[in-house]
Amino acid sequence: MDAKTLLAKLFPAGSDVAFDGLFFHGTGESASGKVAIIGSVDAAPIGVELAFRMAADVLEIVREHPARPILLLVDTQGQRLSRRDELLGINGYMAHLAKCLQLARNRGHKIIGLVYSEAVSGGFLASSLLSDHCYALPESQVRVMNLPAMSRITKIPLERLEELSQSSPVFAPGVANYLKMGAIQALWEGDLAQRLAEALDAPTESDSRRQWGEQRDGRRLARAVSERVRHAEP
Amino acid sequence: MNSYYEASARERLRLLLDPGTFHEFLPPSERVASPHLLQLDTPAAFDDGIIVGKGLLDGRAVLAAAQEGGFMGGAVGEVHGAKLVGLLERARDERPAAVLLLVESGGVRLHEANAGLIGVSEIMRAVLALRSAGVPVIVLDGGQFGCFGGMGIVARLCDAIVMSEEGRLGLSGPEVIETTCGVEEFDSRDRALVWRTVGGKHRYLLGEADALVADDAAAFRQAAIDLLDTKPDLSLEALTAEHERLGGRLERFGACRDALDIWSALGIAAPEKLPLLEADAFRAAVAGKRA
Amino acid sequence: MEKLIYEFDGGAPVKATQGPAIVGVVGSGNLEVLVEPENLGGRCVVEILTAARGFGDIWKAVLEDFFARHKLADLRISINDVGATPAVVSLRLDQAVESFLGGAS
Q1: Could you tell me the CATH superfamily of domain A3-137+188-203?
Q2: Which residues are bridge partners to A119 per DSSP?
Q3: Cis ω on the peptide bond leading into residue A234 (within 30° of 0)?
Q4: The pairing of beta strand A186-187 with beta strand A133-136
Q5: A106, A95, A104, A107: which is closest to A38 by C-alpha?
């Protein structure tokens, strides 16, 4: 689904969104008031400029619109791979965006992410995975790396990876795997405006992804191991 | 002198903290290894490549984690990530003087890529929640494998970073960029190019690393002690100031092709000499010139 | 991966109150060795998980030499190996025992 179609479905009461290259931002009218929108199109590689641009918007929302919910609609093929981005410290720009979203969170802005097309590796880490509630459309694609590339790097035969991926959600691409492992709270189907209204009304708790991963039998260890470290004697 | 670069993660913790004070949580004898590696016929470590625990630094209570680069490049899997998240959450309960992260990681462990990526995201959230609660997180980066991938983002979420020249910090490693974009984009075998692009001296000059020390465990220890009283600040004012600094960097250096161009623009007289200088001489040569 | 288990009898008990000790790293050509005190009826039990299959005879010889040097009882030694040479294995075993007896962990 392209971004304009998505916006029309999410905000039947209207939205005011400006597109600038791979980036877009604006507001939408939801059942419970205005929602700030920050997003990208065309599987944007997230480089220093885009991360910086998104952070600027978050800071402006915090300054100008206290407690307004923020909806991240980021379509990304991953971090931009270039020597220049590394030279300028791309990881610091992504960290800055994460800190700005934490500031928003600390000040009572609800942060919702919706993966509507593609979310990959570092680009996913620096966008939708930073939200309090991360959802996805069923047809979206989520991954760290495709299996042939994974096979080349790990030197594990592709057939073995393909075979195991039938039963294990742990490494293979697929939105269903991320749902099972708790990173994606739910898939949005049907009336998207209604799904958004429900998400805006849902209580926001602390990071619950380990609990969901365990309940859905996708990540069996993360919650228990973290709890053991947290409460270990002495 | 004990080389931090050459030491194992366990040795680094022993050398960094007050002698005999380190107590490990979920030690190797608990055998909390990765089941996912064994499923792929890949050897697993009893501690999953990360040591977490508590100890004293200069007499003050700290929590500490150390990643072992020798095991899978320090990459983050499900157990590895969960141990670090648990430690960061424990710090919210215990409120130590600081949490020390002795990072050494290539990022997400591909054998359990989804669990690793989500684990890194949980580490990020836990660091931010801990800093929001007022406990500082201090990063030490001087190992053989550097700090890349999601852990490179984690490092920059923290309060301060201590690096040696040998330490490296970035997102996509030089090999990954070369493999994907070609050797013309980034020649990962050109050691000098790699070091001046992602190494400690460049990070210090850009203002990303707060301290640049010699490759000596005692120097890392002293730098960490000096940073213990850092106060986390995630206020609008602090982030607005950071935003201006990062914007200024894009304006000032966005067109630079090489670290040498940036160092030159910073007003350093003989930038090509910087890689040759020892830590003390280097700090003296760049005093007052950092971005 | 291959799992190997060896047991040795006739060693002398080591001083009690020692905690576990670990040395080495699970990296290529290397191994980690975990030494733990345990009531094993006087035996020393060595359990190996190795990435290199088919070297059971060599492990047996290396461990017999090791046991002849140290003669330890009531000890569990657990190894994760990534194709270390016999010389590296012997070195790590000696380091592990030294660390264990020295009380460092």
Answers
A1: 2-enoyl-CoA Hydratase; Chain A, domain 1 (3.90.226.10)
A2: A76, A142
A3: yes
A4: parallel
A5: A104
Identify the CA nearest to A23 among candidates A71, A73, A70, A58. Answer: A73
Number of other residues whose CB lies within 10 A of the CB of residue A19 = 14
Q: Is B113 left (phi over 0), alpha (psi -120 to 50) or beta?
A: alpha
Domains of chain B: 9-169+209-231 (3.90.226.10)
B184 close to C (CB below 8 A): no
- Amino acid identity of B104? E
Nearest chain B residue to A47 by CA distance is: B171
**Amino acid making up residue C35:** V
The helix (run of H) or strand (run of E) holding residue A121 is helix A121-125
Q: Which chains touch C (3 or more CB pairs under 8 A)?
A: B
pLDDT by residue for chain A (234 residues), tens only, comes to: 999 999 999 999 999 999 999 999 999 999 989 999 999 999 999 999 999 999 999 999 999 999 999 999 999 999 999 999 999 999 999 999 999 999 999 999 999 999 999 999 999 999 999 999 999 999 999 999 999 999 999 999 999 999 999 999 999 999 999 999 999 999 999 999 999 999 999 998 899 999 999 999 999 999 999 999 999 987
Distance from CA of B106 to the nearest CA of C (A): 15
Instruction: Report the number of distinct structural domains present in chain C.
Output: 1
- Chain C residues in contact with B10 by the CB 8 A cut-off are 22
Q: From the CA of B244, how many Å to the nearest CA of chain A?
A: 10
User: How far is A83 from chain B, CA to nearest CA, in Å?
Assistant: 6
* Nearest-angstrom CA–CA distance, A232 and B185: 47
Q: What share of chain C is helix, strand, coil (3-state, %, to 5)?
A: 30, 35, 35
CA distance A196 to A200: 6
Please check whether residue B194 is in contact with residue B144, taking contact to mean a CB–CB distance below 8 angstroms.
no
Residue ranges making up the domain that contains C94: 2-102
Q: How far is residue B75 CA from its own chain's centroid?
A: 13
Chain B contact probe: residue of A175, A226, A228, A231 with most B CBs at under 10 A: A226
Verify whether the Cβ–Cβ distance A103 to B236 is below 8 Å: yes
Tokens found for residue B119: 């684990």
Q: In Å, how far are A44, B81, B117, B118 from A120, measured between CA atoms?
A: 10, 19, 10, 12
Contact state of B71 with C27 under an 8 Å Cβ cutoff: yes
Q: How far is B45 from chain C (nearest CA, A)?
A: 6
Interface check for C11 against chain B (CB to CB < 8 A): the answer is no
| Contact residues, chain A, for B43 at CB < 8 Å | none
Beta bridge partners of B53: B24, B64
Reported ipTM = 0.98
Non-local (6+) Cβ contacts of C42 within 8 A are: C9, C10, C11, C13, C73, C74
Q: Could you tell me where the beta strands, DSSP code E, fall in B193-278? A: 211-213
| CATH code of the domain covering residue C57 | 3.30.230
Displacement of CA B202 from its chain's centroid (Å): 14
End-to-end CA distance of chain A: 53
**Which chain B residues have a beta carbon less than 8 Å from that of C51?**
41-43
Both tokens assigned to B285 = 């040569």
Asked if the C-beta of B21 comes within 8 angstroms of chain C's C-beta atoms, the answer is no
Annotated domain spans of chain A? 3-137+188-203
